[in-house]
Amino acid sequence: MDKKTGDGTREYSCSDCGVFNCRNHNTQYPPFCVTTNKVSEAEIKEIDAIYGGDTLEGRMAISSAQIEGRYYCEKTRVEETILFIKAIGAQKVGIATCIGLISEAKTFAKILQKNGINYVTVVCKVGGEDKREMGLAEEDKIRKGGVDETMCNPILQARVLNREKTDLNVAIGLCVGHDALFAKHSDAPVTTLIVKDRVLGHNPVAALYSKYYNRLYQ
Ligand code: SF4
After folding, report:
1. pLDDT one digit per residue (tens) for the chain, 218 residues
2. Which CATH superfamily groups domain 89-217?
3. Ligand 1 binding residues, C-beta < 6 A
4. What is the distance between the alpha carbons of residues 45 and 206, in angstroms, rounded to a whole number?
5. Three-class SS of residue 184?
6. How far is 132 from 114, CA to CA, in rounded Å?
7. Domain ranges for the chain
8. Which residue in 90, 85, 116, 89 sits closest to 193, CA to CA?
9. What is the DSSP code (8-state) at residue 215?
10. CA of 27 relative to ligand 1 center, distance in Å
11. Residue 72: strand, helix, or coil
12. Are residues 178 and 71 in contact, defined by beta-carbon separation less than 8 angstroms?
């Protein structure tokens, strides 16, 4: 086994680390360390300049750190999202929501309205295209038997919000994969308010906490 690079089947990285010296600065970096092997001092300095710049990216970096520092364990994610929208000066917010969480999206929209934040909402089923148009097999539909079933259309969701010129998009309960496609096609940066997990009440981390889910290791 090569402690520097890995065990022959995979390369070691941060999830193999037990020292976290990049955070604590109180021990030694491990031989496979990402900080010492995969990034340069020059790159770190270059990114420092992005975070410190008077740009959207700079405001996003500073604002998220400030919200974390000022309200640590005090504000809910919804409250933090409102604070973040205001802090970066977003003039228009896009809500990209799953139709299954439209009730939650409506509540969030009301909160934006109360806070004087302009927004536009697009549901995942926008366009109303049937799943057979993307070549999906009958057995891969939720409802079998040849009935119509509208596809989620994350690329169209992103394109509509791009045309609306939103400054920040908030993802609410998009399916795994659809969320990635939406983020890939969104012009505006995307923050996630709700991650979909139909089994665990949209709390996917429960699968990582619970021994019941030991089957996931098999
Ligand atoms: S960057 Fe290095 S020290 Fe930090 S967690 Fe990754 S491997 Fe560990």
Report:
1. 566 778 778 999 999 999 999 999 999 999 999 999 999 999 999 999 999 999 999 999 999 999 999 999 999 999 999 999 999 999 999 999 999 999 999 999 999 999 999 999 999 999 999 999 999 998 999 988 888 999 999 999 999 999 999 999 999 999 999 999 999 999 999 999 999 999 999 999 998 888 777 777 76
2. Diphthamide synthesis DPH1/DPH2 domain 1 (3.40.50.11840)
3. 14, 17, 19-22, 29-30, 33-35
4. 37
5. helix
6. 41
7. 31-74, 89-217
8. 85
9. G
10. 11
11. coil
12. no
Nearest atom in ligand 1 to 16's CA? 7
Substitution candidate for ligand 1 out of 28, 33, 40 with most atoms within 8 A of CB? 33
Q: What is the pTM of this model?
A: 0.93
Tell the burial category of 78 from Cβ atoms under 10 Å away from its Cβ (0-12, 13-18, 19+): middle
- In order of 18, 21, 22, 24, 186, the CA distances from 27 in angstroms are 11, 6, 9, 8, 41
Helix axes 102-114, 77-88, angle to 10 degrees: 50
d(CA 74, CA 58): 24
Task: For the sheet with 118-123, list strands across it.
Answer: 118-123, 92-97, 168-172, 190-194
- From ligand 1's centre to the CA of 31, what distance in Å? 10
